[in-house]
Structure formats: C-alpha cells, structure tokens
Design a protein that fits this description.
The chain is built from 18 helices and 2 strands. With 446 residues, the chain is mainly alpha-helical. It has one domain. It has a two-stranded antiparallel ribbon. Helix 1 packs across helix 6. The chain is globular, with a radius of gyration of 22 Å. 46% of the residues are buried. The model has no long low-confidence stretch (mean pLDDT 87).
Length: 446
C-alpha cells in the first residue's frame, strides 16, 4: 500500500460513502430512493469538485442531500489526505512519517517540516474566504428572498463553499444566469474562484508580504518562483480570456449581444474566470458560438494552479512548457523562468502531465462518441475536458448522456481529481532505481 494508492483509494472511499448518503430517501426532494447511477455521478462530481450533474440539484435533492453534496465538495476541495489529517489532529493524534509524506504529495509541497502548521493555515484560510463570501452573497440573496431568510442564508453558504472549492454546483436552475448584471454576485464568485484555485502557498506568501509591509518590517521578503509564475500566468490568462470572450460573443444575441457594454465586460470576465475549473456560468453555455466553446475548452484544459482546489494541467505546467519552447527558439540548452533555471525533473514532469492529459481526453472522447453517436464532436470534447479539468460546465446538458456515457464521465472526473501521474503511480507502483546507463544518440525531431 504505497502513498499514491492510499490517496487514490481514499478518494474512492469518500465517493462510496457519498453515494450511500445520496441514495437515501431523505436526500431526495420526493422522499424516494435515488438511483445508483445518479448518486454515483453526483458523489463523484462533488468529491472531485467538478459540478457536473445529471439532475437539477436545487430541485432534485432535499436540504439534506444538498448538505451532503456541500460536505463532499469541502472534503474534495481540501483533499482526502488533508481532511483526514486535520481530523487526526483534532482528535489529538500525532502525524507519522507515512501521513506526512501523503500530505506532502497531495498538497504538492516541498519538505516534511511544518505540515501541521500548514494544515491549520489551510483550514483558517478556507473558513475566512468562505465566510467572507457568505456575508457578501447575503447582501444579494437576503433582499431577494426576504420572506425566507434561512433559505437566503443556505443559498449564500452553498454557493460560497462551491465557489472557493472551484465546484460548479448551483441551486438555481439557470445556475447564475439571472445574476449576469449583478456586480456583487459576479465579483464575489469570481474572487472566491481565483483565490481558491491559485493555491494556498500563494495566498500565504501574499499574506506574509502584506503583513510585513503593514508592520513596516525592515526584512524584505522576496516572492518564490512558484508565486511569481502562478500569479503572472493567472493574470495573463484572465486578461486574454476576457478579451477573447468579448471578441467571440460580443454580437451573439443569445449570450453577450443583448447586454449593455459594462455587463458584457463583466460577463466576459466571469466566463474568463469560471472555466478555470469552477463551473459557474452567467450566460447560456449551450448557445455560445463554436469559437467561444473552443476557447472555453482551452481554458478548462489549462486549469488552476498547483496546491489550489481546481484541476487541469495547471498554470505552472503551461508556463514550463512555454519556457521550454522559448529556450529552443533562442538556442539555449537550459530552461529559464523569471531568471531561475528550471530543473530537468520538473520539465519531464510537465511533459508527462501534458501527454497523459491529452491521452485521457482523446480516449474518453472516442469512447463517448461510440456510446452517444448522436452528439456533436465539439460538445463531446467540451464535456470530457470539463470533467477531466474538474470544471462542471456543459454545452448540452450532462443528463442527456447515456448511462454508459455518464459512467465514462465519472471515470474521467476521478482521473482528473487525483491526477494522471498519481493514478499511474498507484497502478504501477513505485519506480525501481536503475543502475544501467545507456549511450546517448541523436534523432530527428520536428
């Protein structure tokens, strides 16, 4: 039982428990037993912080069912090992070496020291952002549902937790389309998505920098390479995405065309943020242009940053691959990023993540094209990438998939959440060291 197998089986165990809870009669609005496929799909989507659903969550599930979904989203966003370790710390247990290594791999951090303090910081950060989101959303939902204050509070809690954990579950039938002109909802949800997906290490570095500046601490803190790469790449993607969605959907009467210019910019900004593994939408995704859908697919595939609650190949992977291309074009033999040399091991890992992700998406797309031949290629590709990157957006309605197609999406969501490299390590076992060095030889490339 290796560490990677522990993490993968841990996620399966949480999915199994969630499936059992969502099948119970009091979890559905009708009081009847839920079907196995629907329960498995919803539980997997929640634990993998995806947000895809084959039913209308707000109408199909009762309060208890929605509460179970939110808890599964929270556990999935924190990560199985993080949630389990926090529970052990609360019970007064000490972390052994195995638990520390598992947490280190699940959080993708270096070193084993200070993990308990890091976990406490993660929990505190999560609660702070989610509570802030609840308060801001209450300013909108409470006046709207003034006759049902508890309902307004629940809407605020549910959407805040889902936004920060980059899950796209919504309790409204149209997701957030009715709030396309509401700046509080738009910027609160996008703010939670960005901070949830950018990674806890980045947030803590930013906090330490702000603290030192506020206290006028003479010690000058420098940001790590991970911070600079994650923040700069995220900002660039958000700006490029906003401009791209404005350009492709500006005159589309079914999406941005009927909105005022400020609302168009705000909606384009929302759609630039949300495909980065969140899954909320303020425009009708099913009526987007083909160009808009393809841009969304590209942004979904890239995803969020390491250590965050989102999926995709990650911003740092994209940056390393771009820096590799830049180094080749400049005739350099080393890869540089922000005046730092990238280790060969990280380059190999980035290439492996890209190849494994592309292979997963291609395989799943082919299989769903066989199980649901009536669907368009762009819609199938959109659904598969949305599942793999744990986004939650759909271009035709996930409930329209066949049972076989839905089960394939379940597998893709699971692979996307645990990570393709971690899953392969769990299946193949830990690599064995090789004591043989082979001769080097060139070959034609490109």
């Amino acid at each position: 039982m290796t560490v990677s197998r522990t993490i993968c089986l841990g996620f399966l165990a949480v999915i199994f428990v969630g499936t059992g809870l969502l099948m119970l009669p009091f979890s559905t609005a009708t009081g009847e037993w839920n079907s196995l496929v629907t329960a498995v799909f919803t539980s997997t989507s929640a634990v993998c912080v995806t947000g895809l659903s084959v039913v209308d969550v707000g109408k199909f599930y009762s309060f208890w069912g929605q509460l179970f979904i939110m808890i599964l989203v929270q556990v999935g966003g924190l990560g199985y090992m993080t949630a389990t370790t926090v529970l052990l710390l609360v019970l007064g247990k000490r972390l052994g070496l195995r638990e520390k290594i598992a947490v280190q791999q699940s959080l993708d951090v270096q070193g084993l020291s200070g993990l308990a303090g890091l976990l406490q910081s993660i929990i505190a950060t999560t609660l702070l952002f989610e509570l802030t989101g609840v308060i801001l959303l209450m300013t909108v939902f409470l006046p709207q549902f003034h006759d049902r204050p508890l309902f307004a509070l629940w809407q605020s809690i549910f959407h805040s937790v889902n936004a920060f954990n980059n899950a796209g579950f919504g309790l409204f039938s149209d997701n957030l389309v009715q709030y396309v002109n509401n700046p509080i909802v738009n910027f609160t949800i996008t703010g939670l998505i960005i901070f949830g997906g950018i990674g806890y290490q980045v947030i803590m570095e930013l906090y330490c920098w702000a603290r030192d500046r506020t206290r006028r601490n003479p010690r000058r803190s420098s940001f790590s390479l991970n911070f600079r790469v994650a923040v700069s790449t995220t900002i660039a993607l958000l700006l490029v995405g906003t401009i791209a969605f404005l350009a492709t959907e500006f005159r589309n009467p079914n999406t941005l065309g009927a909105l005022s210019l400020p609302s168009k910019i705000m909606a384009a900004w929302f759609q630039s943020v949300s495909p980065r593994t969140a899954g909320f939408n303020t425009i009708d995704i099913t009526k987007m242009t083909t160009a808009g859908l393809f841009i969304t697919i590209a942004f979904m595939f890239i995803g969020s940053s390491p250590g965050g609650t989102g999926g995709g190949i990650k911003t740092t992977t994209l940056r390393i691959l771009l820096d590799c291309t830049k180094a080749v074009l400049q005739g350099k033999e080393v890869v540089l990023s922000s005046q730092r040399q990238i280790p060969v091991a990280l380059i190999l890992k980035a290439v492996s993540v890209l190849i494994g992700s592309i292979a997963t998406v291609i395989t799943a797309t082919i299989l769903i094209a066989l199980t649901d031949p009536e669907l368009n290629f762009i819609n199938i590709l959109f659904e598969v990438v949305s599942a793999f990157a744990t986004v939650g957006l759909t271009a035709f309605g996930t409930g329209n998939l066949s049972v076989a197609g839905q089960l394939l999406i379940v597998v893709v969501m699971y692979i996307g959440r645990v990570g393709i490299l971690l899953l392969m390590s769990a299946l193949l076992g830990d690599p064995k060291p090789s004591f043989v060095n082979y001769p080097e030889e060139n070959l034609l490339v490109g």
